[in-house]
Amino acid sequence: MKQLVILGGGYGGMRILQRFLPNQLPEDVQITLIDRNPYHCLKTEYYALAAGTISDHHVRVSFPEHPQLEIRYGDVTNINMDEKKVEMLNQEPIHYDDLVVGLGCVDKYHNVPGADQYTYSIQSIESSRRTYETLNNLPANSVVGVVGGGLSGIELASELRESRPDLRIRLFDRGEIILSSFPRRLSEYVQGWFETHGVEVINKANITKVEPNILYNNGEPNPCDAIVWTAGIQPNPVVQKMEVEKDSQGRVVLTPHHNLPGDEHVYVLGDCASLPHAPSAQLAEGQAEQIVQVLQKRWKGEPLPEKLPRIKLKGVLGSLGKKHGFGLVAERTITGRFARLLKSGVLWMYKYHNG
User: pTM of the prediction?
Assistant: First the structure.
């Protein structure tokens, strides 16, 4: 039996399982999925979990069941490509014939002193739970600082505003306006929503240091009762340790077929892969679709195309609480209730097809 090992049951890992199971997997292939959680987590909704507007079970989807699928729970500590095995914490190593690395990301603190010690995170379900507990135990009129004006920071700040209108929320964004890389109309809409709803947006921010309950912006102290960091990501530490070629962001450089240049049996997808687009759930799923096609051809001994089609992304959708949203779909800016309904519909469809 060939052993296909998938590290991480995120969006990419789940798409691979969805395409192979129940009846597209060759009879001589066994899949082993390794994840620290006993369920697939909807990472794009962690902001709502941390804000307290949804419960834990809303961000969990069960893994599929199949005779040719084994699920192992635990922490990966190392990938030994010479011996083709995955080393685990307090467990026996797992050997593979083909390996898909989709271990996701962790926060990137940009060498800001104290940021890793004195801020909260929404990068994992465990950290989102801790953030929820802290934010929702704050007394009225407490100050919450959210560092990072990207999609995660915007959604967290807006959701928290609806969940806890008694809190004073400050969103620190390094751009001249929120979402400065997006069309101006969209940026102005989001910035205007925050101004209307009493969220203080601090533009041109430069966080230089974090101390307990103090955020230093351009050297000036900003007292906060809680600080949440959403200002960048980097690959999982296991991937950081891999002695392979990487780009300036620490992501793994791949061939057009998504495998390592020197090893056609190791594939990397999602936040750990160096690709032309910014990391996203859509991108991980698009990669997964192509990795499945490549594996099927290699298992059959068929030649691979020189190039694979460019992964097409449908756009970006973000929420501003439960009733408003924003997005960029087919290069068209959408705002307001329609954008929020569209995002809710996409989430419902995803859970319907994977639940």
Answer: 0.95
